[in-house]
Structure formats: structure tokens, C-alpha cells
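Hi, here's the filled form for the chain we discussed.

Project: internal
Contact: R.S.
Residues: 137
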Amino acid sequence: MVANLIQFATNHYILVGIFVVLLALLIAYQMQGGGRSLSTGELTGLVNKDAGVVIDIRPTKDFAAGHIVGALNIPQDKLTARVGELEKHKAKTIILVDAMGQTAGTHARELMKSGFTAAKLSGGISSWKADNLPLVK
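And the returned structure, exactly as it came back:
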């Protein structure tokens, strides 16, 4: 098995090199994502300890269809303009939730530049649903 892998890498060194570079770029991109990624359990723990506030950055229509209990809705296109509303929560971790966990990192990074402690829900609301956790409408 290992001998076959080494033989493949030797015969296709350009392909293997491209794979290694792309893997390194993917890891670097994930590492620079804003804030830490929280599991659904970690999010629940922070909120239960009153150490975190959930901000759902999905469009208002999606938020109304179902959201995490106690979450505030500030759509991502309005987050920068409405960051002042979050000042009262500056002592807590701001937990951003999007649809699939793809855009929350960028916005968490912006909040961190403004002095907030920010995190994102890994996998977004879809991971919350996958874990069969409750949503309210």
C-alpha cells in the first residue's frame, strides 16, 4: 500500500505537488477565518452561562422561518451599519450564525477589528438543524 503510494507520488510528482500546494492554501484560508469556530454544544454552553449572544446574519425571511432561541437578527449586509447595537454586548462573545458557516468568519473578523470577541457557529444553522436542536419561528 505505502509502496504504491510512493510509486504514484514519484510518477506523478507535478500532480502531487499541486495537491500539496492547494491543501496548504486551504488550511491557510481556514486558519485566517475570523474568530473561533464553535460546535453546537459550545454555543449552547456559552449562551447558557450568559457569556455569549447569538447574532443570526441570515436574511430576515430566513430568520423568520426558524432561528436559535434568543438570537438577534442583523442581516449580513446591514451588520457594519448596525454594529453600534452590539455595544451593550461587548463583554460577551458575539456568536455569528449564517446558513452554512461560509460567510460568518468574514464578519466575525470585522467585529474583532472593532474590539468585540467574536466566534462563528461551525456549519451555520444547517449544523444546528442536523443536530436536531430546537428552532423557534
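Let me know if anything looks off before we file it.
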